[in-house]
User: Fold this.
Amino acid sequence: MADDLYLARGPRTGIRPFAESDRAEFTTAARASRDLHRPWLAPPATDEAYDGYFTRLQEPSRAGFLVCESDGGRIAGYMTINNIVYGAFRSGAVGYGAFAHAAGRGLMSEGLRLLLGHAFGALELHRLEANIQPDNKSSIALVKRAGFRLEGFSPDFLFIEGAWRDHERWAITSEMLTEATSEPPGSR
Ligand SMILES: CC(C)(COP(=O)(O)OP(=O)(O)OC[C@H]1O[C@@H](n2cnc3c(N)ncnc32)[C@H](O)[C@@H]1OP(=O)(O)O)[C@@H](O)C(=O)NCCC(=O)NCCS
Assistant:
């Protein structure tokens, strides 16, 4: 991986911003991952959809990151932070999707750890939330592994696939990450 593109790097992955030049690789991977993503997520799978998505990611209330494999740079998945609000809140809402070829290998868990470091570091956020439908076990496992806590349950919270869906509200604050990473190895 070229160091200058990456905002953070771990042993197996790095996170970097989306680029216009990622269009073909991203949309091809999105089309190949439809079975994994449905009914939870519908990332841009055409050139036109990618360009609109890329433009929206440049808004100040959003940030988008590709999780890429250290070995070869292939895009393993992506993560976004939406609804970024500063002031007294300093919070954002994360979204993510693995691509089928990379799922189930721990790459997204590593990518999420890198994202938390970046969000609480360079982006100066204090809290990230992840709003997840109760049946989405892989997504709940991902945020639990990263140290998020369950804050509550919101009925009819987001409009997805033609209906208002109930969501669990998971979140992590910068203090929680600091506490988790300052514990001695093997103490959890
Ligand atoms: C949610 C989603 C991103 C999680 O991705 P994932 O591939 O399961 O996450 P990881 O890459 O961290 O892989 C975790 C798996 O790798 C395993 N693993 C292997 N090595 C690992 C390591 N070093 N660290 C962590 N996990 C590791 C874990 O045990 C886990 O396996 P399991 O699924 O059998 O329990 C993915 O399921 C997805 O894209 N879902 C559809 C879209 C979606 O739901 N988005 C969120 C909407 S709220």
DSSP finds six helices and eight strands in the chain. Residues 36-37, 40-41, 77, 96-98, 103-109, 132, 136, 138-139, 141-142 surround coenzyme A (CB under 6 Å). The mean pLDDT is 94.
